[in-house]
Design brief:
The chain is an alpha/beta fold and 386 residues long. It folds into 2 domains: 10-258, TIM Barrel; 260-385, Beta Barrel (Lyase, Ornithine Decarboxylase, Chain A, domain 1), CATH 2.40.37.10. The chain is built from 10 helices and 18 strands. The strands form 3 sheets. Strands 1, 10, 11, 12, 13, 14, 15 and 16 form an 8-stranded mixed beta sheet that branches. An 8-stranded parallel barrel has the order 2-3-4-5-6-7-8-9. Strand 10 (261-272) and strand 11 (277-281) form a beta hairpin. Helix 3 (57-65) packs parallel to helix 4 (82-90) and helix 7 (182-199) packs parallel to helix 8 (229-239). It binds ligand LLP. The site of ligand LLP has 22 residues, from strand 9, helix 9 and helix 10.
Amino acid sequence: MKTPYYSYNLNLLERTLQDLIFEAKNYKIHYAIKANNDIQINKIIAKFGLGADCVSGNEILHALKCGFSNNKIVFAGIGKSDEEIEIALNNNIACFNVESLQELKVINYVAKRLNKKTSVALRINPNINVDTHQYIKTGINENKFGISFNQILKAIEIIDSCHFISLTGLHFHIGSQITNLRNFEYLAKKVNFILNYIEEKGIKIKHINLGGGLGIDYDSPYENSIPNFKKYFNVFKKHLTTKPYHTVHFELGRSIVGQCGDLITTVLYIKKGISKKFAIVDAGMTDLIRPALYQAKHLVVKCKTEFNEIEKYDIVGPICESSDKFISNYSIEKLKRGDQLKIKSVGAYGQVMVSEYNLRTKPGVFYHGEKLHFETRNSTKKLILN
Ligand code: LLP
């Protein structure tokens, strides 16, 4: 197959989902479509019964097309357009995660026009600074997301005066690629405090949405191909105080799909610089922007080992930008023109962030995995890919 292309291991995806469902028995999980919107992948996730966390009108329509039920779709984002709000209302989604006071009024206005009542959850910015790249922290005061603690009562007042929206939940999301679980412990404790503060005022909250953010192991994708969901949920079991009428939601993206994708690329040239060697490959930042944008490090391995000696390379793409580099000073078996490489752990925020900069052709897609079994409502269906 022509490189570069994304190669998805659907078997690993299924095993990850099985594990997640087992560990998340008491919770509702919405998959964050933004992490990977490949149709095959999304259909599998929908068949496992997860809901969908969408951030655009198009994601809502896509989720429905992939089989997510409308009553398991939540709609987040700070800049929902009137048209997108209409799409959500016309499809009777479960809930809007609302990020500003003005947005409450706009949703109510559009809902009134369409004569449709809807549920809202308030996204609250808990002011928690997490250990992750600064571009993917979302829960500190200066971030644009959510409303601050001191706006909560005002928001509730607005909801009370709006007849087409009702408050059902609270929503939080503190960032992405979080591997230090201590951050989630702080979140749980903050949520306890905020929930208590609101309920003491006689307002009953039905669901608490703790967002996503669980990180994956980019350094050891073979050893840790499935994230430790047990440990993650245990943090909330231990630190989150809920009442029997509360349901607890999560919106996981990366941890579900991150490890099931590789980007396959071919070495085009080996070039000697003054002090280093470059392996120039046919994939670039247009195919995987994470290293250029977040200085992310993805493991790179040769598709076929030849047991050659180890050399050091900067593995770079063909785009006219110095940031178009996958990894620097990287020790790998000696490379030559024509060698194929696997860039690991690109199932999340890989293909979805592809661009056509330099008028590049978009990468292809390949699926592998053994016979996949899906339970459907009527029968047990087998889907055989490849
Ligand atoms: N919920 C909300 C409100 C979010 O903003 C996100 C991700 C998620 C859930 C899912 O988070 P996850 O479980 O995937 O961490 N492009 C960046 C990541 C951006 C994350 C955006 N929001 C990257 O490549 O690292």
